[in-house]
């Protein structure tokens, strides 16, 4: 498919979506969100893909929603053609594992988009923030919710009320980011991680992801029950039988994603 604002590639079992509006620091227009949604649809439907990477460029993952596009809009336009209508949350609903590779600015909608991914890997130049307050608005696609769950109330309030940026070290310390890597190694490290995930049994990875995501939606007892049911379900997988046999026979498992 031809995309205007993003580049989509498959590298082995990994699908890579690269935001490609460098002159605007990858500002997320409605069109960009729509293209990301289509790319996720395609990669999710592609049986040879086991992990999806979302990235930007060295200077910016994404500096937020496109302020020039948003500025003239009124309530009814944003209400009836909002970020949900354009499937702006498509990355969050993806069944397959997703990794955000963040270098430079991840601000506003950019930070929110990164937080829709399962794992955030940051380069040492990464800067995260929710500066919407400085524009007289607030986060609109998960910033007040996912950030609060990721880093706690005090820091989420700090970021959303002052609009300040958080560097990679603070983001890792706070639990937003799982690892920091040197800027020039970001993509190679992220590809290593994504390839490793893509080698696993895909249904098992999807079950692990689904179980972890339940932790955000349910009381502990309910989440534990979901985990137990999914754990038992893995005993219906050929990959589970093969994985355990391979361990016992001291060899690598040959996953069939079944
Ligand atoms: C539109 C943007 C943009 C954005 C940058 N640009 N961010 N255009 N929307 N979010 C454009 C600039 O206008 C400029 O275009 C070019 O990209 C380069 O940016 P500069 O500002 O010149 O770069 P620099 O001085 O390095 O500053 C980088 C920056 C700054 C600190 C990241 O660009 C910035 O503050 N951007 C806005 C960040 C922000 O407020 N994001 C939240 C958006 S609201 P020209 O044509 O002048 O060269 C939001 C709501 C989410 O995300 C709701 C749900 C999705």
UniProtKB/TrEMBL annotation:
<dbReference type="InterPro" id="IPR001753">
    <property type="entry name" value="Enoyl-CoA_hydra/iso"/>
</dbReference>
<protein>
    <recommendedName>
        <fullName>enoyl-CoA hydratase</fullName>
        <ecNumber>4.2.1.17</ecNumber>
    </recommendedName>
</protein>
<dbReference type="InterPro" id="IPR029045">
    <property type="entry name" value="ClpP/crotonase-like_dom_sf"/>
</dbReference>
<dbReference type="InterPro" id="IPR014748">
    <property type="entry name" value="Enoyl-CoA_hydra_C"/>
</dbReference>
<dbReference type="Pfam" id="PF00378">
    <property type="entry name" value="ECH_1"/>
</dbReference>
<dbReference type="GO" id="GO:0006635">
    <property type="term" value="P:fatty acid beta-oxidation"/>
</dbReference>
<keyword id="KW-0276">Fatty acid metabolism</keyword>
<dbReference type="InterPro" id="IPR018376">
    <property type="entry name" value="Enoyl-CoA_hyd/isom_CS"/>
</dbReference>
<comment type="function">
    <text>Could possibly oxidize fatty acids using specific components.</text>
</comment>
<dbReference type="GO" id="GO:0004300">
    <property type="term" value="F:enoyl-CoA hydratase activity"/>
</dbReference>
<comment type="similarity">
    <text>Belongs to the enoyl-CoA hydratase/isomerase family.</text>
</comment>
<keyword id="KW-0456">Lyase</keyword>
<keyword id="KW-0443">Lipid metabolism</keyword>
